[in-house]
Amino acid sequence: MKIIIFGMGEIYKKNKALISPNDEVIAFIDNNQQLQGTKCDGTAVYSPSDISCLMHDKIIIMSACFIEMRDQLVQMGYERSRILHYTEYISQQSAGKLCVYYGKNFRQRKKRCLFMTSSMGYHGGAIVAVYAAQALQNKGYEVVVASPDEDQTFIEEFSRSGIAFVVYPNLQFAKWNELFWITGFDTIIANTFSMWLCALEIGRHRQVTVWLHESDIAYPGMDFWKDIILENISMPGLSVYAVSRVARENFFRNVGKREVGVLPYGIPDVKKEMGRNTGKLTFAVIGTIQPIKEQLLFLSAARILSKTNPDCTFLIIGGHRECDADYVSEVKKEAEMIPGVCMAGELTRAELERAYCHIDIVVVPSSQEAMSLVATEAMMYGKVCILSSIAGMAEYVRQGENGLVFRSNDLDGLVKQMAYCIMNRDCLQGIGEEARATYERYFTMEGFSERLDQIIGISEAG
Predict the structure, then answer these.
(1) Given pLDDT bands bounded at 50, 70 and 90, which one contains residue 87?
(2) Which letter does DSSP use for residue 192 in this model?
(3) Which of 24, 140, 286, 433 could potentially form a cystine with 317 if both were Cys, beta carbons 3.0 to 4.6 Å apart?
(4) Share of the chain above pLDDT 90, in %
(5) Number of CB atoms found within 10 A of residue 439's CB
(6) Mean pLDDT over each residue of the chain, to the nearest integer
(7) Alpha helices in 104-219, H assignment, sequence order
(8) Exposed, middle or buried, 208 (CB in 10 Å: 0-12/13-18/19+)?
(9) What are the residue boundaries of the structural domains of the chain, listed by start?
(10) Is the CB of residue 262 less than 8 Å from the CB of residue 289?
(11) CA angle 295, 301, 302 (to 5 degrees)
């Protein structure tokens, strides 16, 4: 394939080694007139207005200004289908490469469900995907979870429950001719908004359900394809649900209006008799270390409270992504300066289960949180949970009865709720018991199984 690269900055430099050796870069284009007429890596640089004179198949945009560049090309009359985002181009090089991991005691059944999710790992989207798989197993389904990437530790842990995993690197951008392996499934569910393009491709041929979990921050990552998404937003083959009302409003605000139902998840009941520590109090923030999770806000509250409460421990649990390295460094630096703070790193589900034995209060200080799997787990364990008002789970909290809520990004409000727990330790058990009752009312696997089975029935009838 003959390709033109639009952009020669940092994104090109970081990704040029990933250009397929089977493709020929016949030109670069750039809006900077000083670069036009020069060469980049031995290849001529042209103005975008010159592309009609260049024999090529596709234009690959390698720039952070991909929206403006895409629109510029379209306004020039260039075909939208011949414009690729660099991540899409790189992903498509893996088309046809499929890897299957069969779960322990995996059994073929009459009803088969494919659950496609954007990535594997110990984060909310992937974890609720395997919980959904387990819930459908309880209804007699054979379930396979598919993802563009793999996490061996994650796969090994959850394959023990009989779930099979498929790794298909081009899943997000897969075309119908690549998806021959999905034809044997009765039901297909696309988990998270980043799987929308794949869902659209499937929806042109058969029914597919999309399940949304996103906060606002996730949507710009799909802006390059927003024109395609909006053009097909009401596709008849597409059923859409959101994990909470907050997640649904996020979709409406960032994408557009269409019919979207609400499908809360469920989580396994692994509660053990843990007792309650009457001495030290341990507050914990659990989740990927990144700006929207607001670990720094939690540490600011810990700094204030640690001065007068030396019997309190402040725990930060979670891994991090390379792109958040600066924020992680800031969190670590701050944590080292506050007495009683401990950073535990990323834990497996089994390790986290053991950690809950030592946690009294779970804090969810996020500035964006469409639901909060962590808060749901805290309720399941009968723990007190302090939630940011922005979280989808906040609608299930009755202040002071089954949890505590503070206004998002309000340090004084967070300190007040944490101080309430310190000064009213005799109330914590009662709040925890009510939190547990909330889990039993709304978030059990039995209830989740029923909701999923009902939605699948509606989808198949449609």
Answers:
(1) very high
(2) S
(3) 286
(4) 82
(5) 22
(6) 93
(7) 124-137, 152-159, 196-203
(8) buried
(9) 2-92, 99-266+445-461, 281-442
(10) no
(11) 85
Residue 34 main-chain phi, psi, to 5 deg: -70, -25
User: Mean pLDDT throughout 249-258?
Assistant: 96
Q: What is the pLDDT of residue 460?
A: 58
CATH T-level fold of 281-442: Rossmann fold (3.40.50)
Looking at residue 219, its pLDDT comes to 96
Tens of pLDDT, residue by residue over 95-136, are 889 999 887 665 666 689 999 999 988 888 889 999 999 999
Q: Which helix (H) or strand (E) holds 313?
A: strand 312-317
Alpha-helical segments (H) within 244-358: 245-254, 295-306, 325-336, 349-355
One-letter amino acid of 153: T
Structure tokens at 444: 């059990």
Return the CATH fold of 99-266+445-461.
Answer: Rossmann fold (3.40.50)
Q: What mean pLDDT do residues 306-331 have? A: 94
98: nearest Cα among 7, 185, 165: 165
Tell me the C-alpha distance between 88 and 108, whole Å. Answer: 34
Alpha-carbon span 341 to 332, nearest angstrom: 10
| CA pair distance 215, 193, nearest whole angstrom | 10
* Residue partners of 374: CB distance under 8 A and separation at least 6: 286, 287, 362, 364
281-442 shares the fold of 99-266+445-461: yes
Radius of gyration from C-alpha coordinates of the chain: 24
Instruction: Tell me what pLDDT residue 26 has.
Output: 96
Residue type, 395: E
Dump pLDDT digits (tens) for 354-379: 999 999 999 999 999 999 999 999 99
Give the Cα separation of 243 and 189 in Å (integer): 13
Answer whether 310's CB lies under 8 Å from 339's CB: yes
Predicted confidence (pLDDT) at residue 66 exceeds the cutoff of 60: yes
Q: Tens digit of pLDDT for each residue in 416-457?
A: 999 999 999 999 999 999 999 999 999 999 999 999 999 887
Question: What torsion, rounded to 10 degrees, do the Cα atoms 273, 276, 280, 281 define?
Answer: 90
Helix, strand, coil abundance in the chain, percent, nearest 5? 45, 20, 35
What is residue 123's three-state secondary structure?
Answer: coil
- CA dist 341 and 333 (Å) reads 11
Partners of 143 in the β-ladder: 113
Q: What is the per-residue pLDDT across 126-177, written as a single tens digit (0 to 9) for each?
A: 899 999 999 999 888 989 999 999 889 889 888 888 889 999 999 999 999 9
Give pLDDT, residue 195: 96
Query: Helix 425-442 vs helix 411-423: angle between axes, to the nearest 10 degrees?
Result: 110
